[in-house]
Structure formats: C-alpha cells, structure tokens
Amino acid sequence: MSAPTGPWLVVGLGNPGAPYAGNRHNVGQMVLDELARRAGTAFTSPGGAGGRRPQAVVADVRLGVLPGGAPGPRAVLAKPTTYMNVSGGPVVALARYHDIPPERVVMVHDELDIPFADVRLKKGGGEGGHNGLRDTSRALGTKDYVRVRVGIGRPPGRMDPADYVLRDFATAERGDLGWLVDRAADAVEAVVLEGLERAQGRFHTKP
Question: What tens digit of pLDDT does each residue of 156-174 get?
Fold first, then answer.
C-alpha cells in the first residue's frame, strides 16, 4: 500500500505545563520534540482564520529523507495546549485549516497495554480507554487515523492507572526512555515515508 500524497498532521498527546512534562502520559509530546529537533526547528503558536488560533503549538517540517537524499513529505507537527481529555478540538481545527483528511492524521500517544519500550502502529480500532484518542475520534467523526502507540506498560500492584500515567517515568525506565522516544520518532517517519503496512513490518519485530 503506497502512502497517500499531501501533507500530514502528526499530533503528540499530553497535558500542558511543566508539572506534566515528564509524565508517562506525555511521552507522545516527547516524541514530537524529537521530530522537531531532527528537523532543526522549534514549535510556535500558529495564526488562525478570523484571528482564532488553534489551541496547539506547531512546527512545519519535512519528515525524514527520501531515497536519493531529497527531504521527506511535508508534515505539520502539533502539540495541543489543552488537557488530554479535550485534545480533539485542536486536532480537528488544524486538520481543517491545513486541509488534511483523517487518513493523513498520525496520533502519537502512550499505551498502557503495550510493554514499556515497545512501539506499535495501527489505523482505526478502539481507543483502549485513552481519553485523548476518544475525544479525537469524536471530533474527527471517525476512528480511521493512524496511531503510533508508545508502550508504557501496566501499573505495578494495585496502583490506579490514572495515577500511573500522571507520574514521571521511574528511575529504572529513564535509561531506556531516550531510546524509546527515538524509536517512536523513527516509526512516525516510517509511516509517512513507507506507508503503514511496511512500517508495521519493521516496528512490530523486536530489534
């Protein structure tokens, strides 16, 4: 399956503000920071039609490198500045502003049901109780967008999952966190350069 033409919208889910920046729930935004770093750019607050600004910070980039060395496809990287459970509004506003259909929307997010340091890719399906995805599906009117699922594992013992995702990564995890963020960023680039099926073939196999 070939990748569709046109720009992409890549969204990293998380909560705004310094207290949340290192939380497991914010790993999607960590991945977006890595993609912006690779592109040599920074996030800025966009303008909007009629003076309305999307509730997000964005970076307009070329993702990856095509065979022969040409820059990869254009993508709008976005980090919503709303809280996680109301992520859908910024996503749909940016998709409409840039005329990007749901099949070229990539959501990067934490995933409890995947072991820490694994990355999985899918299009459509359920949201697995993830409030950011649920609100995005509602706002877009479809579940048929790509998800880059960054594994954070299940909470230990009887810890409430809601508490677990709002805690920073444990000391034992931090040594592998940079590698995980880097791998998830590679997965985003693979989706836009190679298409979902080929990217799944690469990233669903243990390195």
Answer: 989 999 999 999 999 999 9
DSSP run (H or E) holding 12 = strand 8-12
Number of domains making up the chain? 1
pLDDT tens, position by position, 26-71: 999 999 999 999 999 999 987 554 456 779 999 999 998 888 888 8
CATH of the domain at 46: 3.40.50.1470
Catalytic residue among 25, 98, 109, 130: 25
Tell whether 186 is covered by a domain: yes
**Residue 26 marked as a ligand binder:** no
Pull the structure tokens for residue 42. 């920074």
> According to the annotation, is 145 in a ligand binding site?
no
Q: State how far the Cα of 57 lies from the Cα of 149, in Å rounded to an integer.
A: 21
The answer to whether 25 is a known catalytic residue is yes
Report field, pTM of the whole predicted structure over 0.70: yes
23 belongs to an annotated ligand binding site = no
